[in-house]
Design a protein that fits this description.
heterodimer, A: mainly beta, 7-stranded mixed sheet, 4-stranded antiparallel sheet, globular, B: mainly beta, about 0% helix
Chain lengths: ~120, ~110
């Protein structure tokens, strides 16, 4: 079945970096984009950025520009999100979500909890 | 950025009754070239990722029960749960994907009265 499986929980210190993976299966990876969305504890959903799995084009939320990098590995159908210079307010569940043109975010990963604490 | 505002923040409805959630965008999300509204609704249960319910404002995602229906155009949208079931207890979010940054409403928590 179509699914996105994310890497496990991470605990990082302030100033460090984290890299979360999102492995796709059950569909042609390069036919869709991947979005990254985060959710701080008890809060709503915040879109972080998007990457085309076809050509690697990206688009980012301005507040994160310069701290986040999105990449894909088409040989393994895996998308990656790296966030640098971590702060305590980056503590959140990070989700990847498939994007089909005009269709919203139809498939979501299970989420990866990233905790930033000294 | 397009700001999405949902109302109410919290809704308590009796089993079998109708639940209505509203979503207003700060600018139109209707593409004139294809006459489609780039507006989606999601359901999120505790400890789970969001689940897509509707897209293009009113198109129901495959597998979503027909008690969920979306409507509206331009800047004003509504999600209706026609007969609330126990499994519908969740937080519901609207989202515009008309222009980046894609933005979500703040969420509406639906509980059983």
């Amino acid at each position: 079945q179509v699914q996105l499986v994310q890497s496990g929980a991470e605990v990082k210190k302030p100033g460090a970096s984290v890299k979360v993976s999102c492995k796709a299966s059950g569909y042609t990876f390069t036919s869709y984009g991947i979005n990254w969305v985060r959710q701080a504890p008890g809060q709503g959903l915040e879109w972080m950025g998007w990457i085309s799995a076809y050509n690697g084009n990206t688009n980012f939320a301005q507040k994160l520009q310069g701290r986040v990098t999105l990449t894909t590995d088409t040989s393994t159908s895996t998308a990656y999100m790296e966030l640098r210079s971590l702060r305590s307010d980056d503590t959140a569940v990070y989700y990847c979500a498939r994007a089909a043109a005009g269709h919203g975010f139809d498939i979501w990963g299970q989420g990866t909890m990233v905790t930033v604490s000294s | 950025d397009i700001v999405m505002t949902q109302s109410p923040d919290f809704l308590a409805v009796s089993l079998g009754e109708r639940a209505t959630i509203n979503c207003k965008s700060s600018q139109s999300v209707l593409y004139s070239s294809n006459n489609k509204n780039y507006l989606a609704w999601y359901q999120q249960k505790p400890g789970q990722p969001p689940k897509l319910l509707t897209y293009w404002a009113s198109a129901r995602e495959s597998g979503v029960p027909d008690r969920f229906s979306g409507s509206g155009s331009g800047t004003d949208f509504t999600l209706i749960i026609s007969s609330l079931q126990a499994e519908d207890v969740a937080v519901y979010y609207c989202q515009q994907y008309y222009s980046t940054p894609w933005t979500f409403g703040q969420g509406t928590k639906v509980e059983i009265k």
